[in-house]
Amino acid sequence: MREIVLFRQNLFRISETFITQQAQAMRRYAPLYVGRLRYGDGPPDASSRVLRDLWRRAAMARIGAQMLTRDPAPYLRLLGDRRPALVHAHFGVDGVYALPLARRLGVPLVTMFHGFDATLSTAAFLGSPAWMNYPLFRRTLARQGQLFLCTSAYIRARVLAMGFPAARTRVHYIGVDCGAIRPRDPQEETPTILHVARLVEMKGTEYLLRAFAMLAPVHPAQRLLIIGDGPLRGRLEALARALGIGGQVTFLGAQPYARVLQAMRAATMLVLPSVYTTTGRVEGLGMVLLEAAATGVPVVGSRVGGIPEGMVEGETGLLAPERDAEALAARMREVLDDRDRRAAMGARARAFVTAQFDLHRQTAGLETFYDELIDRGVGA
Asked: Which superkingdom, per the lineage (predicted)?
């Protein structure tokens, strides 16, 4: 197997399991995870190297200096004698840091855009020390990177608008593991509406709480389960109490991936009412919608970003305008009021995801992209 560098500055975040799932599904390429810091243990037997391991003294100061200079030398030290065939950076922000490394290695660079890296305002990037190099070197990345993959057609349109070349910018859905995620028996359903998201403005959790408060008198047995954490958690918990639904809403915080899948199997539906934010953040696709669909659970989302690409509206899920709690409640009620329709939507959702978003088929396509770059001798 050829080895590739899987580059992500902050490795193994609990909210980014889609990165490791894709990498571990590869059959002809072996990933070496490379970055600055680890935020978890990673997959079993995964090989990873981070800058934090390189320096025992003043590590964070040295990492900060590398962030400013983009000097690939520390990463070359981490690699030692290893000679990867390719570098694959997740997120455009990481691409500008991986580019000097790929060029020094003389190998192709693949950069994958997921969401905020294609939509966030330049001012927001410049306001973050970790991100400020991105708008400064984005045009260099567009000129010198070999392939740009986008997690949805919506994200591709935004990437093209930033000036990336159309011929080297492709849509590539990551996909979900339809073999590992088995369709649930409809009898497993419980009166639970599920929301899985980081608790930030973009996810629209506020509007879900307001919509649920409208539904509660009509469907008093329903409960709302919220999995995820973030800076808005305290404010959202207070809103649930103010709306009189505090006893019907459970905030579980961040949970392991297995616990999330378990909760999906019991849900009447999964709701992701994402919104456009003033800084430009918007949902690139919504992997959690695909995971719910693979489980056989109908989904309700907002008509923003790449969310509509993850469903067949009216057949596998329903859409509502963003920031419209009343319309969201109406869509949710449509699902709740008809158990047979819920079951049919769930079955169609499973079939749709299996046909369009299967992880192993999508990963095989990714490896074909790698083959084409390497076999053509395309290097940095």
From this structure: Bacteria
